[in-house]
Amino acid sequence: CARASMEPAPSEGQSDPPVHGVSDRVVGVLGGGQLGKMLCQAASQMGVKVAILDPLENCPASSVCHKHVVGSFDDGDTVREFAKRCDVLTFEIEHVDAATLEKLEKQGVVCEPKASTIMIIQDKFRQKQYFSKFGIPLPDFVEVDTLSSIEKAGQMFGYPLMVKSKRLAYDGRGNAVAHDKNELSSVVSSLGGFEHGLYVERWTPFAKELSVIVARSRDGCTVCYPVVETIHKDNICHVVEAPAEISEKMKTLATSVAEKAIKSLEGAGVFAVELFLTNDNQVLLNEVAPRPHNSGHQTIEACYTSQYEQHLRAILGLPLGDPSMKAPAAIMYNILGEDEGESGFVLAHQLIKRALNTPGASVHWYAKPEMRKQRKMGHITIVGPSMFIVKAQLDKLLQRDADGVN
Ligand code: ATP
Ligand code: MG
Ligand code: MG
Q1: CA 22–ligand 3 middle distance (angstroms)
Q2: What is the pLDDT of residue 378?
Q3: Confidence band (pLDDT; 50, 70, 90) for 103?
Q4: CA 368, 372, 378: angle at the middle one, nearest 5?
Q5: Of all protein residues, whose CA lies closest to atom 12 belonging to ligand 1?
Q6: From atom 27 of ligand 1, which residue's Cα is the shortest distance away?
Q7: Which of 235, 237, 271, 376 to mutate to test the pocket of ligand 1 (most atoms within 8 A of CB)?
């Protein structure tokens, strides 16, 4: 695949103004959480202007973006107004008003990736149906809308049975496990009933969870980041090991499944493909995020081009950068809220102090206004000469009384 061409340089006699620096285009981002913040930080290095749309006055991205519009990214009129000040629209969260984005696209607004992609992704059942049409390997799944249909699914797939909300899911909120038939009705109620849309998946007793970040340029070229392993705690991504410690054969398989899935979608940007590696060496797709992702945080310090810079390059029509690692190993640890309020901040700060004393460690603090239990408050990335060493460094800094630095 040929490399994406730079923004057309105006030649003599043409009326196009010259490009100042990397790009003169204003990037509009729907959502100003930590992903939006890190996107702004990459943009700042390249002198690219980013406007953020987020309802929270002091959202993480507000301190680093060029312009923060306070408003809902889920409200059609607000998104329409916001789009007027941007040259290309993108998002850090897929739970946005996709119908409005589709209308805007028809009026000539550039959205990357495309509204069609968001529509497919934001409904996890539709996403699975879509990928199965393209022959992507998935856990078995079926839509359920009555108690009898979910009982039938339980008979078909056995227990435990994974029950999932079709929409608005994140960090496992929207998933529930039924261990036997008797639990089905309480599990369904815990997810708000059948009204908002549920489906079930066959339980996958995976050996590892993997993720591959795939970047695609505006002219359809793709590059893939090295396969990483993600380790979840209570359904929340907690640790990322880069590269994953799996065979070359499995790396190739995971990368090809991920690339095939992303090639089936429309639009430019980075996409994260969450995968299950089973004990019998199958790779199954769990879900796709059409944006920078938690499993790519470590690319900031560990790769030649971070996923955030890569996303900007892709959506702006610039050449894609090198996704490969510049160090043998990296580990990323999410700082999750351990307690509400001040005591939670104290615990997080103790961990940060230990990280600041760790060679090769970088601390990212999102500066979210409120500390809540299980909330992603920041992360630590340790880069080093081997996975063994970075793991040992992480273990050491997670010991509460290590070095007396408390
Ligand atoms: P995210 O924050 O990544 O968007 P989510 O709320 O959309 O998460 P999923 O990715 O569907 O949730 O699931 C969360 C976690 O639950 C997975 O990473 C995996 O650990 C576990 N899980 C999901 N589906 C299955 C399954 N079919 N079998 C076994 N475990 C599963
Ligand atoms: Mg999800
Ligand atoms: Mg997930």
Answers
A1: 33
A2: 98
A3: very high
A4: 45
A5: 172
A6: 203
A7: 235
Instruction: Please indicate whether residue 170, judged by its CB atom, sits closer than 6 Å to ligand 1.
Output: yes
* Interval between CA 42 and ligand 3 midpoint (Å): 24
As a whole number, mean pLDDT of residues 153-175 equals 93
204 lines ligand 1 (CB under 6 A): yes
Partners of 164 in the β-ladder: 175, 199
Start-to-end C-alpha separation, the chain = 52
ipTM above 0.95, yes or no: yes
Distance separating alpha carbons of residues 103 and 344, to the nearest angstrom? 43
* Ligand 2 centroid from CA 239, angstroms: 16
From 217, 213, 187, select the one nearest 200 (Cα to Cα).
187
With a 6 Å cutoff on the Cβ, whether 172 touches ligand 1 is yes
User: Is ligand 1 within 6 A of the CB of residue 232?
Assistant: yes
Confidence of residue 10 (pLDDT cuts 50, 70, 90): very low
Report residue 140 as tokens: 């078995």
Atom of ligand 1 at shortest distance to CA of 170?
A: 6
User: Which of ligand 1's atoms lies nearest the C-alpha of 232?
Assistant: 20
Q: Do the beta carbons of residue 283 and residue 277 sit within 8 Å?
A: yes
Mean pLDDT across 371-381 = 95
* Entry pTM: 0.95
Distance 104 CA to ligand 1 centre (A): 32
Residue 248 has pLDDT above 80, yes or no: yes
